[in-house]
Amino acid sequence: MTLQLNGEQLTIRDIQRFLAHNDTVEITDQALSRVKDSRATVERIIRDKETIYGITTGFGLFSDVRIDDKQYNQLQVNLIRSHACGVGEPFADNVALVMMVLRLNTLLKGHSGVTVGLIDQLIYFINHRIVPVIPQQGSLGASGDLAPLSHLALALIGEGKVVYQGEVRDSKDVLQELGREPHTLQAKEGLALINGTQAMTAQGVISYIEAEDLGYQAEWIAALTHQSLNGITDAYNEQVHKARNYQEQIDVAERMRDWLAGSQLTTRQAELRVQDAYTLRCIPQIHGASFQVFNYVKEKLEFEMNAANDNPLIFDEDDETLVISGGNFHGQPVAFALDFLKIGVSELANVAERRLERLVNPQLNHGMPAFLSPEPGLQSGAMIMQYAAASLVSENKTLAHPASVDSIPSSANQEDHVSMGTIASRHGYQIVENARRVLAIECIIALQAVEHQGVEKLSPRTLAKYEALRSIVPSITEDRQFHKDIEAVAQYLRDDAYSSDEQ
To answer: Is-catalytic flag, 53?
Structure first.
């Protein structure tokens, strides 16, 4: 399959399908025409020796330094080499791949002044899955993701590291093997590649895809817990949730009713007790609020995915050409959204840990063995799995502190406010990973708990989930290395995010 890019209509679902199906990309004729027109403007600027930031001048504090016209191309190469200061572990391959797709898409808007050759190089790298090795740390999230995107650019010109067919190699060696020339940067192209928010946005898109899927996964896992504790279904009554107006809450309640339909383990109001604890009773309110966050984040990410966010920008309108230095590279809108995502995902894990505590605590689990141990005292059962979940939840609370409230001036105070959006994106994905493991732990414990209550009494939909998961994680008949079970279930949950196009 092919993902068609035009700079205007790229969605998160497009990216999800692109990754799930290992798609290639192509560009529209209209987008290519815009690229050619904006490049013609850059060539005119060079010919007329105009003073335009980043084309005929230096960068940042050096914006007032005029560059000799014979050194315009070298200026761009120097920019990439000097700005490739990323440190730490590299972004995951899928993040780096999406980074290239997003950078290509923004260049297609026709405001960046790049050559068709650069567009072709990006398409080649994407379609042949030549994935730049891009260190995660080192971006301030304003003036663009300068350090990460410089590592992306290095790969295109044959000077960086890439992952190709599962191996980390020098870009120049891979290109030579494939008979492909490194791209030679022309005036404006280095700046056009690195002035932008594609690192934070790409990681944000991956985090969003997996976070949203976790939201859906949390519902059937919660439904297993609900049945294990003979939860009351009245709290999910449609009238209750319509009375509060939030559509996401209404939707979660409806899905919970569907998951629980036909169960012989659920109860009605006052049948065993009048009402459940909040972690069961308020699942639609709590999970629904996270879906409200996800919807906000999706909107902001998709705006940014189709935005022109480098500098300067070229506009050709009404027979007038404008080249304007602005600040669309500033990551503040994305930083806020990704900090918000951290909170939404953290709470999914927070409430899941409190639910699983009710399953293992003999004071709360309605007569099941303490820690669901097969031999209480001799065997610990799920005791330390709850510890692990509590640790992850606590770590999330630290990571959820907003990165966007911080700013450190750079470039001798020329760039005196920055977004730290890339830190928000990185911490956000750590929270997603932690939350996934908390939900995996709740799942393992809930699977065990329903065996005490009667698997045959489960609702048909959750029984199907029980049977699927039992092929991954067996019943707890004796103590074992539960970290293997946690990772196996977490991988099952992770894979689901890319196994289908829609929920």
So the answer is: yes
